[in-house]
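Q: Here's a chain of 80 amino acids. Please give me its 3D structure as tokens.
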Amino acid sequence: MSEAAPPHSFAVFPFLKTSHPVSIGGLTFRSTEDTAHLSPDQAERVAEIARMLFLQDDLRIRAASYSEVPFVDLERGGLP
């Protein structure tokens, strides 16, 4: 029996742009348009977040950067 992958969260940086994956400090930053390595469910979560990004009024941010980070429990106020 295989163990489930540990839970994770996505950190999104609306004003950070990258066309290729960039690794900094143990994290890999990717464009919100680069989701091929994610499961379909994870890719949809990133796309859903990306659709919520606006600069002002109705000026939508087309692409941002994101990174997978350890799970953040918002109910408990931090990491598990």
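Q: Can you summarize the key feature?
A: The chain has one domain: 8-69.
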